[in-house]
Design goal:
This protein starts with a helix and ends in a 10-residue tail after the last helix. Helix content is 44%, strand content 19%. The chain is α+β, with helices and mostly antiparallel strands and 257 residues long. A hairpin with a 2-residue loop joins strand 3 and strand 4. Helix 2 crosses helix 3 and helix 4 packs across helix 8. The strands form 2 sheets. The protein has a 6-stranded antiparallel β-sheet with strand order 5-4-3-8-7-6, with helices on both faces. It has a two-stranded antiparallel sheet with strand order 1-2. It has 2 domains: 60 residues, Arc Repressor Mutant, subunit A (Orthogonal Bundle), CATH 1.10.10.10; 175 residues, GAF domain (Beta-Lactamase, 2-Layer Sandwich), CATH 3.30.450. It has 8 helices and 8 strands; from the N terminus they run H-H-H-E-E-H-E-E-E-H-H-H-E-E-E-H. The chain is elongated and about 70 Å long.
């Protein structure tokens, strides 16, 4: 597998900073990297543009930027959420016999941060770390639908609609209508929109401020889904989402059903 030299060099620059060398001059970086100062300067400016590096204007030295603090907090929150949710996911999977997912928003996509499969689970397409589109997934809709309309409009700017199946929502107007439906009913579904033959029910996980911090879903094959199955699964996933949200400080209702 080929290595992209510029990325490799940029990452090596970041690795130069530690508890001993919290700030470095461009000449120090150039010497340690065995690179010309002009090359190092270009790499630093690129990292600085994305807030991974910042410059101390008092002494001209460079140091790690606030982006690491932001990303570090995000990772810590995700780890805590994953720990908190694990028991709930296992119980839900055991009771429903379905694959259960925990998903967070990362940029313009959802990302699976945990997954539990029961012994009878038949849905195997997902994996932890895999990204999932917003427009074609139940969890994606649940992550975005409860934002303000202004936030949704900003999110959908330059959104890349990719067709997964013939049922995939492929335009902003239709997706906004779907978001409105999700808000009214309190949950989202994916009826063969992201994967043929797969049906998902998804609920948002809310924190003490009522903000959606994650989404939880159950997945099964369409052939196993009927009204009785939906009703039983719906009650269990709703209860799980509410209990998890309550643990995060949320005191409202996720659905009136």
């Amino acid at each position: 597998m080929p290595i992209i030299q510029a990325i490799d060099r940029a990452l090596n620059i970041l690795d130069l900073f530690d508890d001993h060398d919290k700030e470095l001059k461009i000449t120090d970086i150039s010497q340690r990297m065995d690179l010309h100062k002009s090359t190092v300067h270009s790499l630093l400016k690129t990292l600085q543009k994305h807030n991974y590096i910042e410059q101390n204007h008092e002494n001209g030295k460079y140091r790690l930027g606030m982006k690491f603090y932001e990303r570090g907090n995000l990772i810590n929150r995700n780890i805590e959420l994953k720990k908190l949710a694990k028991e709930h996911l296992v119980k839900l999977s055991n009771k429903t016999g379905k694959t259960v997912h925990l998903v967070i928003l990362d940029g313009k996509e959802g990302i699976y941060i945990d997954k539990v499969e029961s012994s009878s689970a038949t849905v195997l397409y997902s994996r932890i770390g895999r990204r999932v589109p917003i427009n074609s997934s139940g969890v994606g809709k649940a992550l975005i639908a409860f934002k303000s309309q202004n936030e949704i409009d900003n999110f959908l700017k330059d959104y890349d609609f990719v067709r997964q199946t013939e049922n995939t929502i492929m335009d902003k107007e239709s997706l906004n209508k779907e978001f409105e439906k999700v808000r009214k009913q309190g949950y989202a579904i994916d009826n063969e929109e992201n994967e043929l033959g797969v049906f998902c029910i998804a609920f948002p996980i809310k924190n003490q401020n009522g903000q959606v911090v994650a989404a939880i879903s159950t997945s099964t094959t369409v052939t196993k889904q009927d009204e009785v199955e939906f009703s039983e699964t719906f009650k269990l996933i709703k209860l799980t989402a509410e209990r998890l949200s309550n643990q995060l400080g949320f005191r409202g209702k996720l659905s009136n059903k």
